[in-house]
Write a structure and sequence with these properties.
- The structure is a single chain.
- The protein is built from 5 helices and 3 strands; from the N terminus they run ααβααββα.
- It is mainly alpha-helical.
- The chain has one domain (about 1-115): Arc Repressor Mutant, subunit A (Orthogonal Bundle).
- The chain has a 3-stranded antiparallel beta sheet.
- Strand 2 and strand 3 form a beta hairpin.
Protein backbone atom coordinates (compact mmCIF):
# COMPACT_ATOMS: atom_id res chain seq x y z
CA UNK A 1 0.00 0.00 0.00
CA UNK A 2 1.26 3.47 -0.85
CA UNK A 3 1.03 5.91 2.05
CA UNK A 4 -0.75 9.24 1.69
CA UNK A 5 2.23 11.08 3.14
CA UNK A 6 4.88 9.39 0.99
CA UNK A 7 7.41 11.98 -0.24
CA UNK A 8 7.76 9.96 -3.46
CA UNK A 9 4.02 10.13 -4.06
CA UNK A 10 4.01 13.86 -3.33
CA UNK A 11 6.73 14.41 -5.94
CA UNK A 12 4.83 12.35 -8.52
CA UNK A 13 1.59 14.29 -8.08
CA UNK A 14 3.48 17.59 -8.05
CA UNK A 15 5.13 16.62 -11.34
CA UNK A 16 1.81 15.54 -12.86
CA UNK A 17 0.10 18.77 -11.78
CA UNK A 18 1.50 20.78 -14.70
CA UNK A 19 0.01 20.26 -18.19
CA UNK A 20 3.41 20.70 -19.89
CA UNK A 21 4.88 17.88 -17.82
CA UNK A 22 1.94 15.63 -18.61
CA UNK A 23 2.44 16.44 -22.30
CA UNK A 24 6.12 15.55 -21.99
CA UNK A 25 5.22 12.20 -20.45
CA UNK A 26 2.69 11.54 -23.24
CA UNK A 27 5.38 12.28 -25.80
CA UNK A 28 7.80 9.93 -24.09
CA UNK A 29 5.29 7.07 -24.28
CA UNK A 30 6.26 6.83 -27.96
CA UNK A 31 9.92 6.37 -27.07
CA UNK A 32 13.05 8.24 -26.09
CA UNK A 33 13.14 11.91 -27.12
CA UNK A 34 15.69 14.69 -26.90
CA UNK A 35 14.86 17.94 -25.13
CA UNK A 36 14.34 19.84 -28.37
CA UNK A 37 11.78 17.27 -29.51
CA UNK A 38 9.99 17.62 -26.17
CA UNK A 39 10.06 21.42 -26.20
CA UNK A 40 8.98 21.97 -29.81
CA UNK A 41 5.30 20.90 -29.67
CA UNK A 42 4.89 22.82 -26.41
CA UNK A 43 6.29 25.99 -27.98
CA UNK A 44 8.73 26.45 -25.13
CA UNK A 45 12.44 27.09 -24.97
CA UNK A 46 15.06 24.45 -24.34
CA UNK A 47 15.75 25.84 -20.81
CA UNK A 48 12.03 25.79 -19.95
CA UNK A 49 11.69 22.20 -21.16
CA UNK A 50 14.81 21.29 -19.20
CA UNK A 51 13.27 22.70 -16.00
CA UNK A 52 10.12 20.64 -16.52
CA UNK A 53 12.19 17.53 -17.19
CA UNK A 54 14.12 18.16 -13.95
CA UNK A 55 10.84 18.12 -12.01
CA UNK A 56 9.94 14.85 -13.74
CA UNK A 57 13.40 13.47 -12.93
CA UNK A 58 13.05 14.36 -9.23
CA UNK A 59 9.79 12.41 -9.23
CA UNK A 60 11.63 9.51 -10.94
CA UNK A 61 9.13 9.67 -13.81
CA UNK A 62 11.83 10.44 -16.39
CA UNK A 63 15.42 9.38 -16.82
CA UNK A 64 17.78 11.62 -18.76
CA UNK A 65 21.06 10.63 -20.34
CA UNK A 66 23.48 12.97 -22.06
CA UNK A 67 25.16 11.95 -25.30
CA UNK A 68 27.54 14.71 -26.34
CA UNK A 69 25.39 17.82 -26.25
CA UNK A 70 22.13 15.91 -26.65
CA UNK A 71 19.91 15.25 -23.64
CA UNK A 72 17.85 12.12 -24.24
CA UNK A 73 14.86 11.40 -22.01
CA UNK A 74 12.79 8.30 -21.45
CA UNK A 75 9.79 7.58 -19.28
CA UNK A 76 10.05 5.50 -16.10
CA UNK A 77 6.88 3.62 -15.18
CA UNK A 78 7.34 2.53 -11.57
CA UNK A 79 6.28 5.83 -9.93
CA UNK A 80 3.15 5.88 -12.12
CA UNK A 81 2.30 2.36 -10.92
CA UNK A 82 2.61 3.54 -7.30
CA UNK A 83 0.37 6.55 -8.00
CA UNK A 84 -2.16 4.29 -9.72
CA UNK A 85 -2.19 1.99 -6.69
CA UNK A 86 -2.90 4.96 -4.43
CA UNK A 87 -5.71 6.14 -6.73
CA UNK A 88 -7.16 2.61 -6.96
CA UNK A 89 -8.33 2.71 -3.33
CA UNK A 90 -10.37 5.82 -4.11
CA UNK A 91 -11.73 4.33 -7.32
CA UNK A 92 -12.99 1.31 -5.35
CA UNK A 93 -14.52 3.64 -2.73
CA UNK A 94 -16.46 5.63 -5.35
CA UNK A 95 -17.46 2.50 -7.22
CA UNK A 96 -19.02 1.07 -4.02
CA UNK A 97 -20.86 4.36 -3.43
CA UNK A 98 -22.18 4.43 -6.99
CA UNK A 99 -23.37 0.82 -6.68
CA UNK A 100 -25.24 1.73 -3.47
CA UNK A 101 -26.75 4.77 -5.19
CA UNK A 102 -27.86 2.62 -8.15
CA UNK A 103 -29.51 0.16 -5.75
CA UNK A 104 -31.28 3.00 -3.93
CA UNK A 105 -32.53 4.51 -7.20
CA UNK A 106 -33.77 1.09 -8.35
CA UNK A 107 -35.59 0.67 -5.02
CA UNK A 108 -37.18 4.13 -5.32
CA UNK A 109 -38.33 3.40 -8.89
CA UNK A 110 -39.84 0.09 -7.79
CA UNK A 111 -41.68 1.76 -4.90
CA UNK A 112 -42.97 4.46 -7.25
CA UNK A 113 -44.28 1.82 -9.68
CA UNK A 114 -45.95 -0.11 -6.86
CA UNK A 115 -47.81 2.88 -5.40
CA UNK A 116 -51.42 3.31 -6.51
CA UNK A 117 -52.07 6.29 -8.70
CA UNK A 118 -54.28 8.84 -7.05
CA UNK A 119 -56.19 11.68 -8.62
CA UNK A 120 -54.41 14.99 -8.31
CA UNK A 121 -56.21 17.62 -6.26
CA UNK A 122 -57.41 20.52 -8.33
Amino acid sequence: MVLDSSPKLNRVFHALAHPARRAILRSLCDGERNLSELASPLKMSFPAASKHVRVLERAKLVRRRVVGRTHLCRIEGKPLVEAEQWLEAYRRHWERNFLRLDALLDQMKAEERDQPRGHPNR
